[in-house]
Amino acid sequence: MNILILGGGGREHALAWAVKQNPKCDRLIVAPGNAGIAMVAECADIDILDGASVVTFCEENAVDFVIVGPEAPLAAGVADATRAAGLLTFGPSAAAAQLEASKAFTKAICDACGAPTAGYARFADAAAARAHITAQGAPIVIKADGLAAGKGVVVAMTAPEAMAAVDDMLGGRFGKAGAEVVIEEFMAGEEASFFILTDGTNALPIGTAQDHKRAFDGDNGPNTGGMGAYSPAPVLTEAIQAQVMAQIILPTIAEMARRGTPYQGVLYAGLMIGDGRARLVEYNARFGDPECQVLMMRLGAQALDLMLACAEGRLDNARVTWADDHALTVVMAARGYPGDYAKGSVIGGLDRLPEDSRRMVFHAGTRTDGAKVTANGGRVLNITARGDTLAIARDAAYAMVDAIDWPGGFCRRDIGWRAL
Ligand code: AMP
To answer: Which residue has the higher pLDDT, 52 or 370?
Structure first.
């Protein structure tokens, strides 16, 4: 079959790498793709936020299956457009993707189905929000309601910090996404991510992961999109996974279906585990980046079969085959990230690295002129390896990092420390 993947980051390189290994895949196109993706797939330059352009491209190229990578096209209704045109599509409708696009929506779903999550209140008025903070005290969490590129959450350790966040968000820093704030109870514990495929009715867990959000070693420095990840997440034990399925995932799926907006695609639950139970921090409507890289490394070619079963409503018959192993990815970013950074620095040594089913360099922000690869973004490479233990996977990943010649880049040296 002919398959189109939308997106151009490390997540999409990992998806393309896994999909390409499946004999069902004849032609693989990724839009817009990047220099690494170009080594496994054709790259196409289309506006992936415009459903009509995506549909036209699919018709012209006889695409049989569309996989939507990032959240922006989902929120823009691209999966609605492709499905309406009769194209088999992996990814939720815009209505269902509100589970990621609106914090207030997710809280309302949790209320309706009794899923455990942090207590909360919603405010559009700064004075009322400030009064609430005074009454509740700190620590407390302030969130812009809408999509704010991962920057719309402030975990405030003091009341003045919380007040400043409210003023900032309601003052228009995030435009419409910050017209309302959700103020949440602070949850203590350890965070982990749980990935579930659902066709709207059936649910199939496909793995767990943990990531590192801070820029520097020891979980210090500013928040980023993620500097590394590993799978599985030891904190998500079988017992906790069972609790999460029973109390959070299945009730959410049922509630979405009851509202007439069934959720189809991958549901990524961000969880806080403390006192022997998990509570929902947030949902995302797509695979995490870089968590997808470690999941795809462990799933391999079957990822395509699973996404097809999901899109075709056949998940009740689908099974995941797990190797009892571990995967770890180290993000290499341009110096300066997540602040200002330069583009265009040359990355050497990539052609000397082994790439197979156990070791892969997934590209995030790269370009190539055919001869050399240059950095073209903040997060640039995902150095990914698997092994029988997490320590083996980590050592294999860092051995590859050390063979890369890129003075313009940096990475954390302690990915996986919590689990090791
Ligand atoms: P979110 O975008 O909702 O995932 O929030 C980003 C990050 O803020 C999460 O990954 C947590 O580390 C933290 N966070 C969000 N909500 C809470 C909460 N209620 N209690 C503690 N930490 C939180």
So the answer is: 52
- The residues pairing with 155 across neighbouring beta strands, listed in sequence order, are 141
Nearest to 12, CA basis, from 366, 410, 395 = 366
Phi and psi for 253 in degrees, rounded to 5?
A: -60, -45
* Residue 10 CB partners (closer than 8 Å, separation 6+): 289, 290, 292, 293, 329, 331, 362, 363, 364, 379, 381, 382
The atom of ligand 1 lying closest to the CA of 187 is 20
Whose structure tokens read 């995302």? 284
Distance from residue 94's CA to the centre of ligand 1 (Å): 23
Residue of 142, 210, 281, 291 to test ligand 1 pocket, by largest number of atoms within 8 Å of CB: 281
Whole-model pTM? Answer: 0.95
Q: Which of 176, 4, 196 is nearest to 99 (CA)?
A: 196
Nearest-atom index, ligand 1, CA of 270? 4
Query: What rounded mean pLDDT belongs to the chain?
Result: 95
Q: In ligand 1, which atom is closest to the CA atom of 103?
A: 3
What is d(CA 246, CA 253) in angstroms, rounded to the nearest whole number?
11
pLDDT digits (tens, 9 = 90+) for 246-279: 999 999 999 999 999 999 999 999 999 999 999 9
Q: pLDDT value at position 418? A: 87
- The residue whose CA has the least distance to atom 19 of ligand 1 is 186
Question: Exposed e or buried b for every residue in 210-236, given b needs 16+ CB within 10 A?
Answer: bbbebbeeeeeeeebbbbbbbbbbebb
Phi, psi of 114, deg, nearest 5: 75, 20
Q: What is the DSSP letter of 248?
A: I
Kindly list the protein residues whose Cβ atom lies closer than 6 A to any atom of ligand 1. 118, 141, 143, 153, 155, 184-187, 191, 270, 281-282
Q: How far apart are CA 166 and CA 160, in angstroms?
A: 10
Local structure of 304: helix, strand or coil: helix
Nearest CA-CA partner of 72 in 56, 48, 54: 48
d(CA 181, ligand 1 centre) in Å = 14
Closest by Cα among 320, 326, 321, 323 to 232: 326
- Give CA–CA dist 377/204, Å, rounded: 34
Identify the residue whose C-alpha is closest to ligand 1 atom 3: 282
